[in-house]
Amino acid sequence: MRLFLSALAVSIIMITSVAHAAEVTAGDLVIEQAWARATTLSAKTGATYLAVRNTGSQPDRILFIETPVAGNAVAHQTRQEGDVSRMSETGPLSISPGGTLEMKPGAMHIMLMELSGGLKVGQQFPLTITFEKAGKVEVPVKIGKPGAMGSE
Ligand SMILES: [Cu+2]
Hints:
11-stranded mixed β-sheet, mainly beta, 12% helix, binds copper (II) ion
């Protein structure tokens, strides 16, 4: 019995780690490690990070980003100017063939604006990305700790 239980525990752990590494495929694109930083309940803005891998032979572009948790979502780039970090819109992002578009804290991110109720640790929300060629894709975004630096 004890042996059976520990075998069960091992398989549960394996299932969890597979779920954690969830990736979404759309045509030639693989979207992975989608996560967001938790915010306070009254926060109006938040940031989401993810990676898009292009396994095809043609470039693709992100046209729109939308989510039910925010009134507006746009790709931003953070630049460090002395002691000040500034963000600006990136415009349409392209993913070159064989390349990966990687977003992370302090660099590129998806800015969520007009948040409807804050982002809570441990919860998840859908993000819909429309690509020029791969079309519309819904990606589940996990919410990590407020100061988290990655999807772990
Ligand atoms: Cu931003």
